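Morning run. Coffee first, then this:
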Amino acid sequence: MNTVKEKLPGILVCLIIAVPCFLLGRAVPTVGGPVFAILAGMIITLIWKEKGSAKAGIAFTSKYILQAAVVLLGFGLNLGVIVQTGRQSLPIIVCTISTSLILAYILHRALRVHGNTAILVGVGSSICGGSAIAATAPVIDADDDEVAQAISVIFFFNVLAAIFFPMFGHAIGMDTTTGEAFGIFAGTAVNDTSSVTAAASTWDSMFSLGSQTLDKAVTVKLTRTLAIIPITLVLAAFTARKKRAAGSEGENTFSFRRAFPMFILYFVIASLITTIAVHAGVSASAFSPLKELSKFFIIMAMAAIGLNSNIVKLIRTGGKPLLIGGVCWVGITSVSLFMQHVMGIW
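And here it is:
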């Protein structure tokens, strides 16, 4: 009960911000509720610097309410569609992840940025933002400042993607009658799950596609997120080897449970329930309220992420890490578009 009371103020703050942003998103679908929520949170946090009793609830909303939103999306998806989408997007995912990690390594050497910071930015850019950074940090013994800086870099480009990618996708002529091309683009080129859902939701709103783009983007993104596991295993082995070479007896802290995002499993279970129910004769429209709730939860999470941002501090102190993040972001975007063109998706 004490834990609930501790988190309630922050959750209510995010809820209060999300309601008008949800309505604004309906009124101005070219912007969308998630983008309004991010911007509102960022503006509010410039004035409201000390969150006090709301801090715990805001952190809870940015992580767990977002994960709940992704799980709820699973209730609107057929398991066969998920497998097909994952298989379709896998070559693009492999190429974008490889591009980001290679660029991060090259810039780490060229700019003489600390290895941990470069690894965290590269992994966060290529896989799934904050989740990948959280899973990787204990494996490479990154300190809090390195983690905070990497997350700030990823967040900065997340916000840019959520705001500008829908306009960019429209400008380069992506199909507006279906969410396939932009969904795959968002799922492979945007760093964090939060901004993937924000950009995809905006595209759906702009072109009245229901949740076509959101369904596609989230499925692609969750397939991409699974790359956390092999990459953290490799980093764990590399770190352990370095410690042995240095004569350190420190314990390697890799944890499979930490590396595997459990909400992916719940997402698959939700889609399995939907698949079985539809085959049993239940109308797919029965799951529509859960998908609408999912969209609202996404807006709440965007508000929380905006409230947790400090863009001014990042720009002042994070020059080289920002450059690494920017180059990785441009590289991933370019490779995603190139692969889609080669595969005939766009």
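The mean pLDDT is 82. Good start to the day.
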